[in-house]
């Protein structure tokens, strides 16, 4: 495979600044301890600028913050920032990325219930290994890095623009946008993309817009079907989404349901955000935590804990829920008494995992038991039957 030639045009918003260190207790940092516009389903050509194929076979795709990137042929190997982008690649029928930020947060078990879709992540590497080594990028020798370079320069101390340029020019271009959260100050000066807007961009990079179009149609039908399962606004339970570490959590990082793609299933289901009705601040605003006493004052109908996706539902109940049921304060919470404590989903989701997670969420908060999407159709699209 020849190295892809590219050019990033002026106007990209590459920024650096102080953000959390990856070794901290920040649940969104690169510690191994462990969404706006998402309904947009326009064609990739409609959602990008500067795309098209030249007479020599080269083509360009544009995404902030990098700008326009020109490829002389279609990339075959790649690395991804996280499970959002990795899942998009799977949906497009690509081989899995060679690496992601943390493989432990790319939850491939979501594919287990879809016959014909599977990912072998055994050879996938962590890009973050107590830091991010440029030598690893050289060793992986990918054809494209589907990573927001601002994420690299701001989510831990180590990389600057010179490092990004060195890998871009010596290995392959960067092409990505941090879409999972809208809470980062370093992302305020350039566009966020909804899940399907970003998916359309990647489909253009891999020249698989037919699969994108098929998923976009499926997504529109799926969205329409949700109207039949979402109860009237006044009948929806109040939910609290928080990050909980380990099996016996005592404090939590609170999340308000926001516009990043990590909240897409909750927005699409129109959940009532219990924390938004209080003076509790979002984790992104002050990195604060709350305890059971604060939770008891709010007393949400449903508790949804992130950071628990490596567990099965039964494992979660046998550890976290069991601990809360025996806890002096937590046992008084309405959600605990009623058995309404659940895993709250991952930070990252793509087009396939969003279907799985939204269906699961509908069961958690609204008691929906039916399948809400066609597994066979998903597998067919992934395998090229569009």
Automatic annotation (TrEMBL):
<feature type="region of interest" description="Disordered">
    <location>
        <begin position="17"/>
        <end position="61"/>
    </location>
</feature>
<keyword id="KW-0813">Transport</keyword>
<keyword id="KW-0732">Signal</keyword>
<protein>
    <submittedName>
        <fullName>ABC transporter substrate-binding protein</fullName>
    </submittedName>
</protein>
<feature type="domain" description="Fe/B12 periplasmic-binding">
    <location>
        <begin position="88"/>
        <end position="344"/>
    </location>
</feature>
<dbReference type="Pfam" id="PF01497">
    <property type="entry name" value="Peripla_BP_2"/>
</dbReference>
<feature type="compositionally biased region" description="Low complexity">
    <location>
        <begin position="30"/>
        <end position="60"/>
    </location>
</feature>
<dbReference type="InterPro" id="IPR051313">
    <property type="entry name" value="Bact_iron-sidero_bind"/>
</dbReference>
<dbReference type="InterPro" id="IPR002491">
    <property type="entry name" value="ABC_transptr_periplasmic_BD"/>
</dbReference>
């Amino acid at each position: 495979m020849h190295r892809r030639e590219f050019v990033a045009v002026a106007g990209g918003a590459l920024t650096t600044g102080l953000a959390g260190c990856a070794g901290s207790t920040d649940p969104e940092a690169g510690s191994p301890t462990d969404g706006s516009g998402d309904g947009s389903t326009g064609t990739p050509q409609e959602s990008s600028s500067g795309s098209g194929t030249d007479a020599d076979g080269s083509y360009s795709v544009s995404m902030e913050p990098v700008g326009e990137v020109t490829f002389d042929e279609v990339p075959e190997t790649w690395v991804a920032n996280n499970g959002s982008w990795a899942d998009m690649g799977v949906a497009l029928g690509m081989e899995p990325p060679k690496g992601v930020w943390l493989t432990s947060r790319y939850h491939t078990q979501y594919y287990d219930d879809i016959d014909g879709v599977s990912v072998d992540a055994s050879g996938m590497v962590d890009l973050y290994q107590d830091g991010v080594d440029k030598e690893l990028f050289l060793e992986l020798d990918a054809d494209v890095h589907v990573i927001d370079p601002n994420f690299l320069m701001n989510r831990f101390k180590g990389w600057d623009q010179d490092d990004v340029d060195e890998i871009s020019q010596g290995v392959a271009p960067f092409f990505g946008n941090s879409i999972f959260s809208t809470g980062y100050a370093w992302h305020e000066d350039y566009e966020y993309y909804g899940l399907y807007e970003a998916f359309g961009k990647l489909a253009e990079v891999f020249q698989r817009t037919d699969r994108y179009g098929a998923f976009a149609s499926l997504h529109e039908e799926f969205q329409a079907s949700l109207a039949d399962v979402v109860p009237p606004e006044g009948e929806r339970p109040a939910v609290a989404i928080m990050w909980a570490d380990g099996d016996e959590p005592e404090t939590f990082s609170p999340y308000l349901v926001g516009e990043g793609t990590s909240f897409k299933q909750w927005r699409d289901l129109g959940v009532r955000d219990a924390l938004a009705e209080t003076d509790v601040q979002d984790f992104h605003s002050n990195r604060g935590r709350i305890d059971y006493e604060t939770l008891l004052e709010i007393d949400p109908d449903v508790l949804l804990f992130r950071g628990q996706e490596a567990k099965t539902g039964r494992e979660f109940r046998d550890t976290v829920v069991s601990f809360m049921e025996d806890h002096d304060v937590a046992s008084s919470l309405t959600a605990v008494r009623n058995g309404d404590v659940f895993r709250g989903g991952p930070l990252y989701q793509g087009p396939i995992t969003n279907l799985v997670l939204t269906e699961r969420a509908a069961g958690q908060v609204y008691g929906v038991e039916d399948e809400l999407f066609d597994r066979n159709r998903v597998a067919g699209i992934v395998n090229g039957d569009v």
